Amino acid sequence: xxxxxxxxxxxxxxxxxxxxxxxxxxxxxxxxxxxxxxxxxxxxxxxxxxxxxxxxxxxxxxxxxxxxxxxxxxxxxxxxxxxxxxxxxxxxxxxxxxxxxxxxxxxxxxxxxxxxxxxxxxxxxxxxxxxxxxxxxxxxxxxxxxxxxxxxxxxxxxxxxxxxxxxxxxxxxxxxxxxxxxxxxxxxxxxxxxxxxxxxxxxxxxxxxxxxxxxxxxxxxxxxx
Length: 225
Fold this sequence. Notes:
By secondary structure, the chain is mostly helical. Helices cover 71% and strands 4% of the residues. The protein has helices at 11-24, 36-43, 47-59, 78-102, 105-123, 128-143, 148-156, 158-167, 172-190, 194-219; strands spanning 63-66, 70-73.
């Protein structure tokens, strides 16, 4: 019998995962200075893996390092929103059409079931399943577009998109609006209507961009959840 090798999470990976969640969910606020020593002590992680985690977060554009000052949580700006949503629209406009034609029907049905379950959770005031469903839907679409380089680009901005996604989902009406678009996208994909799915995906990203920019303008400061 062949026993599969167990792969354990490295300290750097764990530190990255925890800090990424703290930032994207707003528990570490934009502009906040990171006390690296205190973080290491709290997490039980030495300086080397913590530096590796912070380097990855800087690559994700979630933190910035200032010489002789320290490492800080980055700020979301209007230009960031425009650039990231523009990249996302370009990727998903292409990917949704291709995935409609390539994705197995079973995967499409599973996605719809997850969307329905997230809707039911929102009626109970629980929005976390929506965020999980949202990320899974869009990533799965790109995964099934048959373009490895496009997936690599999408992966490179995933953490920042997650940050924007959560920051731009203030209010039940916005989560509900995004959920309605998710239904339009997946229903069109299940019907095999690539044109309709593609249009719905483009409208969805445009709406998310406007919602996020509106939050940015209303708060008159970098968005925080």
